[in-house]
Here is the input.
Amino acid sequence: MSSRAISCVVVLKGGPSVEREVSLVSGREVASALREEGFQVVELDAGPSLTADLVAAKPDVVFNALHGRWGEDGCVQGLLEWLQIPYTHSGVMASAMAMDKEQTKRLYKSVGLPIAESMLVSKKDVQAGHPMQAPYVVKPYNEGSSVGVYIVNAGEGPARLNMDMPDTVMVEKFIPGRELTTTVMGDKAISVTDIQTDGWYDYSAKYEAGGSRHVIPADIPADIFDACLDYAERAHQVLGCRGVSRTDYRWDETKGLAGLILLETNTQPGMTPTSLAPEQAAAGGVPFGKLVRWMVEDASCNR
Here is the structure.
C-alpha cells in the first residue's frame, strides 16, 4: 500500500455467486468494524454497474468481502487493477490459482506439500459409475464454502448430483479424521484451529450458529501443529497470496504426520461472526477491528 492517507473505503459484498448470502454478512461485519476504526465506508453490492459505482465512489481502498466466483477468482481483482484502486487480499493470479482446485494441487505438489489423490471427471461419468474406489468426495473444482460437496461411501451407488453442479467436477479420495485450519496474516501463520462437528463440515456447519465448535489452539501433537503452520505459509507463498489467507487440512491421526493432507487455500476467508480467520487473529491478540484496519492498510494493486 502507498503512503497516501486512507479516508474512503469501499466494501464490496454480495455479488452474483452462490456464496452471495455469506458475502453480505461478511461485508456488513467488515463495514461496521471499519466505521468504528474511523474510516468513511461505502458499501457496494457488486452488480452489473460495479465499474460505474466504483468510479463514482472514488475510494482510496477497496475491501473485497466477496466470496465465490467473480469475487475471489481473479475477475474483480482484474477490474480493480484496471481502475488502479488498491484492494485487500490476493491479486489476480493468486486468486485465480487458489480458486481452481486442480491448479492449487499442482502448485502444492511442486513444493512437496501433501495432497489427496484426485481427478477431474465429467458430471455425466460421475453419475454413471464410480470413478475411483469409495469412499471419495465429489465437488466443484472452482467453488468454496463446501458448496456442492458430496461424499460417496463404500457400498453406496454413484453420486446423484444436482443441476447446479458444473459439467466437470473434482473427484477426490476421502481423507478420514479431523478438520484443521491455519490462517496466514502477511507471511506469518497465526495458529491452528480444530474444527469439531457432528458430521461433515458442510455449508450449514460453517455458517449456522452452533454448526461447529472451534478449539484454538488445537489440542494436537506439536509436530502436527508445527506442520500446519509451515504448510500454510508455504501454500500462501507458492500460490502468490498476499494479505490474509486460510489453508484447510484433514488429519488422519492414525497415520501421524503422514496423515496430514492439504485440502485448499482460501484467499478470501469469511468475515462472519462464526468465521475462522478473525477468530484466530483475535486469539493471537488482533481483535476484529484491528484486523480489518491492517488489511486496509496492507491493500495494494499492480501485482
